[in-house]
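Notes from the 1:1 (GR / supervisor)

We went over the backlog. Supervisor wanted to see one worked example end to end before approving the batch request, so GR pasted a single chain during the call. The sequence is below; no edits were made to it. Supervisor asked that the structure be written out right there so they could see what the output format looks like.
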Amino acid sequence: MYLTSYLRVYDPTVTYNNTIVIYACTIAGQALLMFLGGKIELRVGPRAAAAIGSCCLVGAPLLSSMVTSLWAMTCTYGLLFGFGGGLTYTVPLVCGYRWEPERKGLVSGVILSGFGLSALVFNQIQSVLVNPHNLKPDVVYKVCLCEDGQPMAKPSVSPGLLAQIYEFALLHVSRIGLN
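Structure output shown during the call:
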């Protein structure tokens, strides 16, 4: 719902019905990479596969903050975030199955529970960060508009911040031996 309000700043014709494609692509991307994730994990190893998936999960919202159209948001947040989610979900399953081959049901249950509980916890944290006053998304959208209907200030990401994120990512990737 926040994605719709964000896109309305740039295109007031965007509706919730339009943005449902973003979430559909997220699920499709996740399903596709869950299918291929085992093969990727075998080829590059669990640590590298988890790092690649994590980079997709972190990079998708970062790139999404720089786009202004529905199709670009669908590619960045929809597909890229789904790819990251699918890959990072597969790696613990594969490692857990190797660790406990006789208890695959228990391993699947614990990992699935963690996946579901993380959404419960982090949705609350996200709401506090993104919308601390608990305004409805349409109210936030209307507050962002001037009297003539034009946006007051369009969100942007500074090049310095991008350089810091890139440097941070390189530092941590080199620490786990992927350079």
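Supervisor's comment: DSSP finds seven helices and no strands in the chain.
Batch request approved.
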